[in-house]
Amino acid sequence: MYxxxxxxxxxxxxxxxxxxxxxxxxxILLAGLRITAWLATLIGSIITILVAxxxxxTPIIQVSYAWxxxxxxxxxxxxxxxxxxxxxxxxxxxxxxxxxxxDWIVRNSTNDARVQAIVLAWSLGALFEGLVGFGYPWAxxxxxxxxxxxxxxxxxxxxALANNxxxxxxxxxxxxxxxxxxxxxxxxxxxxSVAKVVAxxxxxxxxxxxxxxxxxxxxxxxxxxxILGSLSYILGQYPVASFxxxxxxxxxxxxxxxxILLLFLRVWRPKRVLSLRSVQPNGGESKKYSTKDVIEALxxxxxxxxxxxxxxxxxxxxxxxxLVTLSQTAYSSLLHKNVGVSFAFNPFVAGTSILVSWIxxxxxxxxxxxxxxxxxxxxxxxxxxxxxxxxFVVGLAYVFNFSGMAYSLAWKTSDLGIAFIIVSPLxxxxxxxxxxxxxxxxxxxxxxxxTTARLTGLxxxxxPALNSVGAELAKPVAPQxxxxxxxxxxxxxxEGIVIRKNLPWAIGILIYLILIGVLYAFxxxxxxxx
Length: 530
What we know:
mainly alpha; 530 residues; single chain
């Protein structure tokens, strides 16, 4: 059995530097050289394999096998989910049902820009994050806000900062699934731990949106919508994440928040209306869709929720089935026990439930075989780079963990003791700022966060949860996310302007997250003990 060395170079400083090599390599490739994500993670994989082999002394056959296991996890636990979620969206677009849904939303939104920011960017944005993620919520929401009179830059900023809280449960829970995989902790425990942090974090963004649109006057005049926006999202998100799993919290949180806010707006409106558009959308500029079109569009989300809940909930035997398991074990000199990496091939994973949902939705929408084929073709065209990135980055992460690099890094980081709780979110924030991916960041740092938690005596579920939520908060400044987000605005290839506007807010919310982590660590650590 391979024994992971703690200090393979014989020098603590050199060993820590060597263990950071994959992260430094990704930093240079993504942020410095601006290489596309799939190519950067491929090169990063090669560099990580070389360091594992020649510095840590991991046998090349075992390194290759660990990488293969990671690549399979990346394909089956990431790409299989996101691809079919994206295909559902493309089917809605091709059948015209997405336009009907969007038109209905715009027509039923109030004329007040502050309310529009929360109803559309916050509540509706979480739906697109839950379905697709990866920067698409900006691309969907910003054009709606621009149509309603928002300046392009303001629309992008509102869309980006509204998208902070839902990211960990984005793309049908993909980041949480990967975090559970690399840490070895139960999926529902990880989902619940992240939900506890997100529930507190979600109290802040609606207030930021009011301030962005109308400064302090917006907060004074529209504060009820901020309170209700936060609480209604938490009402739909937290129970599902805690008791069912990570696949649907954003979708249920979004839809419940959206419905509650629309009902609330029937009995309350701001006394002064802040309109950014001289001609309102219900003035007849938009194409009119029938009630049937809107109901059919909503039925797609209902089908998805029902199928995924029945398929993936703790009551379902489908998630416990496995045809074959690939695994490899090493001995940790740090933990003094066996650790390993594994991939269990279950044909009935969450991605398959989304595939089945898509088939049912296509039948409900009467999508022709031509439309279904075109939806698959579009999804592959949009996401082939993401498929390769998922393969390469999780393969990289599994080598990082199996070789012992993650444990060597945790070895000295644990010297911080309980103060590590302050540093823990920074790893997630930096990782996502570089990669643009919460999922990739969880894959890279998940095992490190759990190991450091055990060494420092922190509750084992809190650091990985802070890692995931910290990654969420870097999305507004991640170049890859911004590139997808600006694709439907006049800021195409001008991501730097948007990132600079978002940076102070992203840092401020990160400080708020660190405070949440400290309070949980000292006041309620038992909530994060498995």
